[in-house]
Design goal:
By secondary structure, the chain is α+β, with helices and mostly antiparallel strands. Helices cover 36% and strands 15% of the residues. The chain is globular. The model is unreliable at 1-35, 63-98 and 382-389 (pLDDT under 50).
Length: 419
Amino acid sequence: MKYPLLPLPFVCLLSLASGSVAAWAQVDATPPIPGVVGKLSAVTSHSIEIQTKTGVVRVEITQPLRIYREAPSDLSHLKDVISLGVSLYQISDFAKTLSFAFAGPMPSLNDSDVAVLQFLAVAELVESDLWGQYCELATNNPSYRNALQQIDESLPDYICGVFEDECSHATFINAFLVAAGKTQINLDPFRTLPSVLVEGAKNIGRLTNLKNLTVDTSYYQRYRQAGNPDFGDAFPQIVNIVNQPTVPTSESIRGDELRSIAQTAAFHFAAIEQGGSSLYNSFATKVTNLDVVAILASIGPMEVYHFAVFQTALEGIRKLEGHGGPSFPDIRENPNRGDIMPEPCTFLDKSLPVCSVIRPRNTNTAGAVAAATGLVNSGLFLGQSATGLVNSGLFLGQSQAFFDAVVPLAKAADAALRS
């Protein structure tokens, strides 16, 4: 990378100066200390590590960092240990949790570079939210875990691995934006959707809804045929999944009903990652700064990697009908069974030979608005009220304010042009 990314000194104080912006976290420390001064050395979705002169101090985060203008009156989400205010020195009013700076000159990002990165930050935060829910249940709900393992014994591990990856993507893209002097994305105000009330699920606010999903499964045939959506080709659904849960919604769900939910989830896993594969690809020709090109070229293939893993896991889908869920085929009887590698297809121009590629990649079929519309159509945000986005159910329950914030970012990203 042209400009090595280095953290600014990271200062944690017990109290706030009047009017300063702070994020509240907590740290296990014995004995209590009046403050921590050092450099940020590591960040995960669960903790921050600060390198001090005497060693590393680990700050554990029990919930996503929340931003306050003054000390909050409700600290119930913090553990009974020292509460620390993490002082922030940023250039925008967006909620910031970290400060970074480049060791060399700050990279020059044009408006298109920023628009693309900001929408990708949105996408990665949304992915982190839904994969986090899946990981919690795949790890801590024995019945759901067992149902997933009937499809592929490694599915729970894949799910949590992808969750970790997506968290790193969101954290890195936001950190890069801040280091470049631009505004990072914070979706915490929209974490208002309830968790499912079953064993293993944390009782925290969510961005996404996994209880009423409509999943586009046409990707299964798309990658096994020579057609390309960029040239108007369409593909049938291998399973019709409409308004279905992909996680258990009650402790009473067992047997084939739970198995149906797990198989529905398996198709959703691959659907999410194939969408991410096309999204990064669609932006590749829109950005100018070489560091941003490197980000797209390096994170995008990880989405493809994830898709390949979940595409392979679908080989474990077995015939299942009734129980209020979709009618699943037995993949062993599918003529394309085992045909995991993408078939060569039309690419760039019909006069050229077919080529095995990620598809689609055009803005109208794979860009930010298309991705946002696909997520909403799936029901992931069921409850949010915006044209197109709610149809998927992923954002069911989300507020209009959420869509008012996200849709302009999607449109700006699609309008990006390389200079």
